[in-house]
Give the backbone structure.
Amino acid sequence: HYQPKVTLWGDGTWRLNSAEALVRWQHPRLGFISPDSFIPLAEKTGLVHQLTRYVLDDALKQVAEWQRMGMDSSVAVNLSPLLLGRPNLPDEFAELAQAHGVEARRLIIELTESAAMQDAARSTEVLTRFRVKGFGLSLDDFGTGYSSLVHLHRLPFNELKIDKSFVLEIGENPESEAIVKSIIGLGHSLGLKVCAEGVESEAAMRQLDALGCDYFQGYHISKPVPSTDLIDMFANG
Ligand code: C2E
Ligand code: CA
Ligand code: CA
């Protein structure tokens, strides 16, 4: 499925900026299985590389299709920290993008803050090579992973995604609001774009907009949906 990330315009309408690929498993007997259950299994059994290639291949196919439909959008994929140990991953991604005729800047790679900080030296190397190739890099679940500010400054990210646990409490919990405000300020002073995930209401979106947040993602805008639904929502404006 794909979940839109939007920018807000002065007149209160929004425009599609990109869409995040969120993998789904519809099991014939067990029904819907959440990625929170099967991604860890894929990681444990050595299948996460193949799974990521599958998701990436579909994401690149979709973003090429969106462009044919006149949608000026990028696509984001989530990266398991285990894959940071594969030095040729950036080349692999670049080859797949080229095979689909998709420019590197149309692909954003999301990595969680805790994953990026676990082994910052190794992350820096692989992530820098992604950036050199022109891919976007987004630091996911930000605010939950104990970043050192030195690493944050050195790692080559161009976007921070504020973790939904803080965003969900906007309008209810002054401490969460203070954290959101600080993350937006920190991100902007480091020259990064800031995205809020978990935007569930118009009120939260307005408050985030007033704080200077750049991109919004959440059920208020849309749940993750099949690509055809995304096209219905966003093609031709
Ligand atoms: P994530 O990357 O932090 O994705 C955000 C999760 O929040 C998604 O859950 C999404 O459906 C949900 N969400 C979006 N908007 C809202 C909202 O407004 N309110 C609330 N309460 N939730 C919202 P999902 O799809 O179940 O994915 C869970 C996690 O599984 C993802 O967290 C990501 O870490 C992982 N994942 C999903 N697809 C992939 C993949 O292809 N590869 C890897 N490595 N991980 C994946
Ligand atoms: Ca993500
Ligand atoms: Ca997230």
Summary: The two ends are 21 Å apart (CA to CA). Residues 3, 21-23, 34-36, 39, 52, 55, 78, 80, 140-141, 164, 197-200, 218-219, 224 surround C2E (ligand 1) (CB under 6 Å). The chain has a mean pLDDT of 95. The first helix runs from residue 35 to 44.
